[in-house]
Design a protein that fits this description.
25% strand, 30% helix, Rossmann fold, alpha/beta, two-stranded antiparallel ribbon
């Protein structure tokens, strides 16, 4: 009898510890990396970095490349969805509708780099991201500038720093009310590029790189950084991305000043 009681106590204790462990995680996030266009070499490093970030900050992370994850039932457990280096047309109409309902229920979106090179024909999505990718020059080092320190994750980033990346140029704002937090100084690199008939000499005095906004009942954060594989081992970059994840998933972290 005592043995049975002892076993029952051990089993109950194990269940309790498992439950407490699950409850300890801050929130659940879906990491989505499907591509239907350019496939970034840095996806591997990005997934590894995001998994490490989830462990470091104690949140649950599920990685998928199968679009069938976008259904009301499957999305229900997540507080935020990350589009990491996605490209092209990756969700069908039903899956897009599920994503829209997800955001409208008060959940969050995080877009990294080529998330702005995704779903051009989905008007709701392009407004959520805020701007769409247009063209970029060759990878170069340039001055990255912090515009707004109210957003979480920028605590240790200096006002200006030399940063190497693929500097995306964007089209016009797809929606009003974007809150810009990072920009690149075009005077510190050559922004000119030409792809056939498409060409540019840059965006001019103001070239945004990262922003956030409240959108359709939920939250959306986007950063254009993250092209190079080595970026995903950079502490400042990872803190910047986690600030976006934390805010998108919880709505917390914004400072008054």
């Amino acid at each position: 009898m005592l043995t049975r009681i002892a076993l029952a106590l051990v089993f109950t204790s194990a269940l309790t510890l498992t439950s407490l462990s699950a409850q300890a995680q801050q929130f659940n996030v879906l990491l989505f990396t499907k591509t239907n266009g350019f496939h970034h070499e840095s996806i591997n490093e990005g997934v590894t970095a995001m998994r490490a970030m989830a462990k470091r900050h104690d949140f649950a992370l599920d990685w998928h490349e199968d679009s069938s994850i976008f259904s009301d039932e499957k999305l229900q457990k997540y507080q935020a969805v990350i589009f990491l280096l996605t490209t092209g047309d990756i969700l069908n109409n039903e899956q897009q509708a599920a994503m829209e309902r997800f955001i409208r229920s008060g959940k969050g979106f995080v877009g990294v780099h080529s998330a702005s090179d995704t779903e051009y024909d989905w008007d709701w999505y392009t407004k959520m991201v805020g701007r769409t990718f247009h063209i970029h020059p060759a990878n170069q080092s340039a001055d990255l500038q912090v515009l707004d320190r109210k957003f979480p994750g920028l605590d240790r980033m200096p006002d200006r720093l030399l940063w190497t990346d693929e500097w995306y140029e964007f089209g016009a704002e797809r929606i009003k009310g974007l809150n810009y937090i990072l920009a690149v100084d075009e005077q510190t690199y050559d922004p000119s590029a030409q792809w056939g008939e498409k060409k540019t000499t840059g965006m001019g005095k103001f070239h945004p790189i990262a922003w956030y906004h409240n959108y359709d009942g939920g939250r959306a954060f986007y950063t254009a950084l993250g092209h190079l594989p080595a970026t995903y081992s950079d502490t400042l970059f990872l803190e910047h991305v986690y600030g976006g994840v934390f805010w998108a998933a919880t709505g917390k972290g914004l400072r008054k000043k």
